[in-house]
Write a structure and sequence with these properties.
about 425 residues, alpha/beta, eight-stranded parallel sheet, six-stranded antiparallel sheet, about 20% strand, globular
C-alpha cells in the first residue's frame, strides 16, 4: 500500500503551502445568538475555532444545517485566490472539501448536504483545481473522514454520546468512503488531508488501511497524511502531519508539515483580531525548512468568497521576502548543523558547488557556524560581502552594524 518515496519528492521540495478553511461556518463568523467564541458560558465554548461553532456554542441542527439556504459566495474568485498563493511563494494548496459539519463544497452523489443545494448552486472545487493547474500549484483536499455532524451515523465530539461502532460503519460505507472516491475520480488530487487528533476515534487500523487501499486503487500519485489516524498512522502514509500549530524539536524520519493559522481561528472569525506578523510566520517557515519539514499556512475566506485584507497583506509580505530569499528555502535540505539559538541553516548541493544558507532572526555582531567553511559569504538579498574566519574548526562570520535595519530575517549565503 506504499507509494514509491519519489512520489513525495515534490512535497519535500515544496516547503510552503496554503490551507483554506471555508464552508457554512464562515457565515456565522464565530458568533451565534449574541455569543462569540470563545465563550465560557458554554461547557465546551472555550475555543477560537470558528469552524467548530456548531457543537461548541450548541447551535441547533435545524439552524446550522439551514445555513445551506444562505451560502452564496458571489465574490468567489478562485483565480485570485491561487494567484495570491503563488505570489506568496506557496507551491500547493489544500481546501476543506468537507469539514466536520458534513457540508461538501462539490456536487456529491451520496449527500444532498452540498454546495449544489445552496443559492450559489455551483461546484466550488472544479474552478479552484483549474486555477491551480493554470498557475502550476499542486492541490489537495481536506476531508473529514471521521467526524460528520450532519450525518446521523457520523462521529461527534467527545462530549456527545459515543457513536456505536456498528452505526459509524454505516456512515463509513455510505458517505465517507464514497465521497473520498468522488474527490479522486472527479478532481485527481495530489494529496488528501485527513483529520484525527489525540481523541478517542473510530478510525481503527482496519479502517485506516481500508481507506488507504481505496486511495491507492484510484490514484498512483495522491499522497496521504498521517492524521488519517493520528495516534497510529502506520507505515503506509506519505507524510506526517503535526498537531495544529505544532513544531517538532528534532528531525523526523518521514516528510512532514505543520498546519498553522494566521490568527487563532482557522475559519473566518469576525472578532479574532489576533493576527500574527509576517515575520513570525516566516520564522516558522524557516524553522521547518531547516528541519526538512513544510509549512501549511491557513487563510479563512469570508462567506462571500473574499479573503480578509489582513491575510492578503501577510501573504504579500511573506511573498516579498521569499522573492529575494527563496533560494535559501526552496530546493534545499537541512544542513545538519547545531546552530545558535534563533539561527537556522539549510544546504543546497549543485554541480557548481554547495551553498550553505544561514537565517538570522535577530540582530547580532557575529554568528558562529560549527563547521570549517571554505569559500566566500555574502548577504543573500544585497550581495554585501562578509568577513569569515575559521577558529578551531568553527567559522565566525562578522556582521556589520547596518545589516539589521528592521525585524526581517536576514539570510547569509556561504559558497564552497
Amino acid at each position: 500500500m506504499k507509494l514509491p518515496p519519489e512520489k513525495a519528492e515534490w512535497f519535500k521540495d515544496a516547503k510552503f503551502g496554503m490551507f483554506i478553511h471555508w464552508g457554512l461556518y464562515s457565515i456565522l463568523e464565530g458568533t451565534y445568538n449574541g455569543h462569540t467564541m470563545p465563550d465560557t458560558t458554554f461547557p465546551q465554548g472555550n475555543s477560537w475555532y470558528a469552524e467548530w461553532i456548531k457543537p461548541r456554542l450548541e447551535v441547533p441542527d435545524d439552524y446550522y444545517n439551514g445555513l445551506i439556504n444562505e451560502f452564496n459566495p458571489v465574490n468567489y474568485d478562485p483565480d485570485s485566490w491561487v494567484r495570491e498563493a503563488k505570489n506568496a511563494g506557496m507551491k500547493y494548496l489544500v481546501i476543506t472539501a468537507k469539514h466536520h459539519d458534513g457540508f461538501a463544497l462539490w456536487d456529491s452523489e451520496v449527500s444532498d448536504f452540498d454546495v449544489i443545494n445552496t443559492p450559489y448552486g455551483k461546484d466550488l472545487l472544479s474552478p479552484l483545481v483549474e486555477a491551480c493547474k493554470k498557475y502550476g500549484l499542486k492541490y489537495g483536499f481536506y476531508y473529514s473522514h471521521w467526524q460528520d455532524w450532519e450525518d446521523p451515523d457520523g462521529a461527534m465530539p467527545f462530549w456527545y454520546p459515543w457513536r456505536p461502532d456498528e452505526d459509524f460503519e454505516k456512515y463509513w460505507q455510505r458517505k465517507s468512503l464514497p465521497q473520498v472516491r468522488e474527490l479522486i475520480e472527479k478532481f485527481d488530487p495530489d494529496l488528501l488531508w485527513f483529520d484525527t487528533w489525540d481523541w478517542k476515534t473510530h478510525i481503527t487500523p482496519e479502517r485506516r488501511d481500508e481507506l488507504i487501499r481505496l486511495v491507492r486503487s484510484l490514484s498512483d500519485k495522491c499522497l496521504i497524511n498521517g492524521r488519517i489516524c493520528y495516534e497510529n498512522p502506520g507505515d503506509n502514509i506519505d507524510f506526517l502531519e503535526m498537531h495544529d500549530n505544532s513544531y517538532p524539536k528534532e528531525m523526523l524520519s518521514k516528510p512532514w508539515q505543520t498546519p498553522a493559522t494566521m490568527q487563532n481561528s482557522w475559519a473566518f472569525h469576525g472578532k479574532d483580531f489576533n493576527w500574527k506578523p509576517a515575520t513570525r510566520m516566516l520564522r516558522y517557515l524557516v524553522n521547518n525548512t531547516s528541519m526538512g519539514g513544510n509549512y501549511l499556512l491557513n487563510v479563512g475566506p469570508k462567506a462571500d468568497g473574499t479573503i480578509p485584507a489582513p491575510a492578503i497583506r501577510r501573504l504579500r509580505e511573506m511573498g516579498a521576502w521569499l522573492e529575494v530569499n527563496g533560494e535559501a528555502v526552496f530546493g534545499t535540505s537541512p544542513a545538519g548543523l547545531q546552530m545558535p539559538e534563533g539561527v537556522y541553516a539549510t544546504l543546497k548541493e549543485t554541480q557548481e558547488g554547495n551553498s550553505l544558507y544561514i537565517f538570522l532572526t535577530s540582530p547580532m555582531a557575529s554568528v558562529t557556524v560549527p563547521a570549517a567553511l571554505a569559500g566566500d559569504c555574502e548577504v543573500l538579498e544585497t550581495g554585501q560581502p562578509l568577513e569569515m574566519s575559521v577558529v578551531e574548526g568553527e567559522t565566525v562570520i562578522s556582521l556589520p552594524e547596518n545589516l539589521f535595519k528592521d525585524d526581517s530575517i536576514v539570510v547569509l549565503k556561504c559558497r564552497s
